[in-house]
Amino acid sequence: MPRVRSRRLGAPAAGGGADGTGPVTALSVDLDQVGTDADTAEKDLLTFVLPANTLATDGDAVRIRGYVLCAGNANVKEAKMHFGATELISSTAIAYNGQAFSFDAMVYRTGVGTQFAYGKFLRSLGAVLGKRTTPTDDETGTITIRLTGQNGTASANDIVSDGLIVDKIAAPA
Asked: How many CB atoms are closer than 10 A to CB 103?
């Protein structure tokens, strides 16, 4: 798929805002279009490596949004969003014919090495799924955030990413 545009921003500035003064920091805006391969393996479509210590204080959070498009065919398709080793939300494997997906997740630090997460999935025909998870990633190291796609039939570009956006929300003072 052609590259559309991509902008990756640096680690959060002191104070949480992009300029160091506000509570929200845009960490990554990646609008690349990457498709699944002609196989049935789960493929990373877009990734972002959360810098070490981004979630340094209890209550710090990241909001993760992901977007995918499905080919207009009867093949089974599944897209997922991951935070480290944890699957935040899945579209479930269904024959989505020409639909667009939207993922939205919040991951909050609740203690050292513990998080609370809630993910939401919405598809263009209106179905909404939600999932609560409790990741246990080490915030002192980097954490990989992934938007993935998996074909049910070996057909290239059955699922194509349309964006992955990651923001940090600082804990209230």
From this structure: 23
Contact 156, 173 (CB under 8 A): no
Cβ(64)–Cβ(166) below 8 Å: yes
Q: Please tell me the distance from the alpha carbon of residue 4 to that of residue 48, in angstroms, as a whole number.
A: 17
In tens digits, the chain (173 residues) has pLDDT values of: 333 334 444 444 434 444 444 689 999 999 999 999 999 999 999 999 999 999 999 999 999 999 999 999 999 999 999 999 999 999 989 888 999 999 999 999 999 999 999 999 998 877 788 999 999 999 999 999 999 999 999 999 999 999 999 999 999 88
User: Among 16, 46, 53, 44, which residue's Cα sits nearest to residue 138?
Assistant: 53
User: How many residues does the structure list for the chain?
Assistant: 173
Q: Which of 95, 89, 84, 85 is nearest to 66 (CA)?
A: 89
- Compute the chain's Rg from CA coordinates: 16
Residue 147 to residues 76, 103, 140, 144: CA-CA distances in angstroms? 17, 9, 22, 10
DSSP string, 79-118: EEEEETTEEEEE--SB---S-EEEEEEEEEEEETTEEEEE
Q: Domain ranges for the chain, please list them.
A: 30-132
